[in-house]
Structures are given as C-alpha cells and as structure tokens.
Amino acid sequence: MRAVTLTGLGRLEVVEASVPRSRPGWSVVQVLACGICGTDRHILHGDYPARPPLILGHEFGGLLHEPGPDCPLPAGSMVSVDPNICCGDCWQCRDGSPALCAERIALGVDIDGGLAQYVLVPDTQLYRVPQHVDPLQLAFVEPLACCLRAIDLAGEMSGARVAVVGGGVIGQLVVQLARNAGASTITLVTRQPFRQELGRSMGATWSGDMADRPSRDHDLVFECAGVPGTMTDSLDLARPGGSVILLGITGRDHLQSVSPFDLVVRELRLQGSFLNPRTQSRAVQLIADGTLNLDPLATRIVGWDEVVDGIRATPGPTDIKVILQPSA
Ligand SMILES: [Zn+2]
Ligand SMILES: [Zn+2]
C-alpha cells in the first residue's frame, strides 16, 4: 500500500508499505479520506513532538476492512476514527479529562496514521458512521470534534456575542456551531477576503480584519488561528468579564506577551481547549444530520502525486481543508 511517511525531521515521502493485519483489540480500516492539518506541518518541521519513522494523518475515516476478533462492527462498516488513544486509568482519564492523559498517544503522531491506504486502529477508537455520509466528510469529524470541545468549554452560547479569530477550517466550523447554538452576533476576524466572505456564508454577521475595527464587546472569543499575535487580538475583542478560548496551536516554543493587569482589571478568562475528549460521537452525529455546510470547506482534494506538496506548502488564502483521497 502507499503511505505518507515522515522518515526524519523535515523528510516526508510517499513510500510503499505493507498492509497492516488486524489483531485482538485492533482492526484495519481502509482509508477513504484523510485531512491534512497544520499539526502535520508542525510535525514535519519538528515544532510538534512526533516519532519517525511514522505514517502521518490523524483526521480520517473509511471502511472497516479487516475487523479484529473482538471488534463489534461488521466488515464494510463506515467508520470515523478518534486518533487520540488514552490510557483510561490515570488521574486525568478517571477525572474525565482524557485529552490530558500523560500516557496519551495518537495515530499519525506517535503511531502510524491515516495518510495511507490502510491503517491499524484500536477498536476503542472506532465510531460507526451512517453509510449515507459522503466519505470526504470523514476528514471533518476530528476537527469538528475539537471545535465541539471548545464550545463545551466556552459556556452559555445562546444569545452570546461571539468573535472568532482565524478563518481556516476551525474558525469556519466554530462560526457554524455558534450560529446553530443561538449566538446573537458572530464576528469573524481574518485577513483574507476569501475567508471573510466564506465566513459570512457560514453565518458570521460581521467579518473583516483587526484594522477594520471590529467591536470589542464579545462575551466569547475563540482563537482559531494559532499564529503570533492572534492571542492578544482575541483578548482585545473580549468585553470585560468575557472569555477567550484558545484552540489554535502555535509552535511549541512560541511566546506571546500579555498584560496581567488587563486580565485582572477586566476579569478575563483565558481557557485552553485541547483535542476532542468525549466529542467524537457528537461530531459524527452532526455530520450525519447534514446540518453543517462542509462542502465549501473541502477546497482541495489531492491524490498521491500531490499529497506531500499539500503538506509542505504553506496554505494559500483559498486553501481551507486539503484532503487526501487515497483512491484518487
Ligand atoms: Zn488536525
Ligand atoms: Zn490516562
């Protein structure tokens, strides 16, 4: 089979690998779609810890090809995969915060992932998807589940004035979730006109750049860009007493200065949101229900010839989500 393999720091190639075999507790999934994500680029450049040699890809789903002996699902089932495998036994896991598990490993980060024709997955990570779902949408389940985590952490959304900083896939999904959850206004801050317009079609009531002077009275601000400066922009957009939820992942060593004085006298809440604890099945449900507008977000479908470039290249303003279709 073909697979996108990180062979060393900064080295990425499509290699011929052997198809994995199922074993007790583990099943083989034939990948139908795998999203490429900023995290893959961070891994490639050593900004996010990973262990080569490694097949990348953590936003994927497909068909159950060879169920393991204990797998409750029949062969041929459409499945989404939660790539984050937690121990289930440590204090954080038992306390209901599996994303913070110290023993956590992830498909596509620590062990082989879904940028391949087939992938070996623990049965615990499989979520059945109704067969009517467009296979390309399987690439959105994990990013959507991460957004649902942020929405869970944010608190009351109904009637809230919401700001979203960053117009990539995460920002566009949060705009839709905020709209569906009854936010009264949704401000999308992004530099790119294409992304501003896309955001308005997704439910943003205002979109523009920081230079366009968005209002600063937001109850909830979602930082979805993860680039230098956007955390302070997010704090600027919050009303006194407001909350800023950080989902964007910056490089590990990136530092950003904030004013502790401002945090105190405006009683701002700064909340990190990491991964997708207990949100994967809701993400599957939302996608199966068809209430989200995902097609305009799948801006580029690539095959094996273009996939390495798709990971390496800095996304252009019109690239929202690049998806590998292994059969393409
Ligand atoms: Zn990702
Ligand atoms: Zn644990």
Structure description:
With 328 residues, this protein is α/β, with parallel strands linked by helices. The protein has helices at residues 38-44, 91-94, 141-154, 169-180, 193-202, 230-237, 260-265, 280-289, 307-312; strands at residues 2-8, 11-16, 26-36, 54-55, 59-66, 78-81, 84-85, 105-106, 118-122, 126-128, 161-165, 185-189, 206-208, 218-223, 238-246, 269-272, 300-302, 322-324. Helix 3 (141-154) crosses helix 8 (280-289). The two termini are 14 Å apart. The model has no long low-confidence stretch (mean pLDDT 96). The structure holds zinc ion (ZN) (2 copies). One zinc ion (ZN) binds next to helix 2.
Essential attributes:
328 residues; alpha/beta; Quinone Oxidoreductase, Chain A, domain 1; Rossmann fold; seven-stranded mixed β-sheet; six-stranded parallel β-sheet; 23% helix; 27% strand; globular; binds zinc ion
Net shape: globular
Q: CATH topology of the largest domain, anyone?
A: Quinone Oxidoreductase, Chain A, domain 1
Q: How would a crystallographer describe the biggest sheet?
A: 7 strands, mixed
Number of helices: 9
Cα end-to-end separation: 14 Å
Structural domain count: 2
| Chemical compounds bound to the protein | zinc ion
